[in-house]
Sequence to fold (135 residues):
Amino acid sequence: MPQTKFLNQVKWDDKGLVPVITQEQSTGDVLMFAWMNREALQKTVELKRAVYFSRSRHKLWFKGEESGHVQTVHDIRLDCDCDVVLLKVTQTGHDPSIACHTGRHACFYKQYKEGAWADVEPVLQDPETIYTKKK
Fold:
């Protein structure tokens, strides 16, 4: 049975979630922001693969389960207040890597410029080809 005491040190919010920042290990790029519940964090530790909690679907979300863009976890950190998790990962499934559901390398592709948000990162793969419905 795996150790789970570490889960009790995390300050979970009133919904039992903790925010997660995911960073690419090789470049330091911040790829995405997501949420985890206790089960997601425990599975991430066990599998060394990013597992999140989807608030919209109300279930575990194994990153890459639909897209094939899996995140192998190398390092897991907890901030000083114990209320934010940082994952350092290798993103696989496409070269260059894609973490965002829009087909971009990272989710933070909008930049504030002169009073508006501008898309400053290219789409690397059309999301329609990433998320094809399985029949």
Observations:
- The longest helix spans residues 38-47.
